[in-house]
Design brief:
Distance between the termini: 32 Å
GO molecular function: cadmium ion sensor activity; DNA binding; DNA-binding transcription factor activity; lead ion binding
Strand order of the largest sheet: 1-2
Mean pLDDT: 87
InterPro entries: ArsR-like_HTH, HTH_ArsR_DNA-bd_dom, HTH_Metal-responsive_Reg, WH-like_DNA-bd_sf, WH_DNA-bd_sf
CATH architecture: Orthogonal Bundle
Radius of gyration: 15 Å
Shape: globular
Number of domains: 1
Oligomer: single chain
Largest sheet: 2 strands, antiparallel
Pfam families: HTH_5 (PF01022)
Protein name: ArsR family transcriptional regulator
Length: about 110
């Protein structure tokens, strides 16, 4: 068994914090498909631009997304190419653990 360091546990805690909010989780899941502008994400997820701005700032602070200026606009993407497949695998594991959790009627996990 490998040694678990403080930096390992801090990294997992940052991911846990990011995923603890449904909007942040939805942002990460959306960005695994492709980079996006905050206004497009806000519209797609049905949240205000202010909420989107706050959640993206949190995800940036966690080191999970990065911003790139494109003229007067900024688009966001996952900060590491390993994140998209990791999120896909995490989603598969969670749906396997409790497939009814995220069914058509929404999340029943808690």
């Amino acid at each position: 068994m490998s040694t678990v360091t403080m930096s390992h546990s801090e990294a997992v805690a940052r991911l846990g914090h990011a995923l603890s909010d449904p909007t942040r989780a939805r942002i990460l899941l959306a960005l695994r498909e492709a980079p996006a502008f905050p206004s497009d994400l806000a519209d797609a997820l049905g949240v205000s631009r202010q909420v989107m701005s706050n959640q993206l700032a949190c995800l940036r602070g966690c080191g999970l997304v990065e911003a790139t200026r494109d003229g007067r606009r900024t688009w966001y993407r996952l900060s590491d190419p390993h994140l998209a497949p990791a999120l896909d695998e995490l989603l598969r594991v969670m749906l396997f653990v409790d497939p009814a959790c995220c069914g058509p009627d929404g999340c029943t996990c808690g």
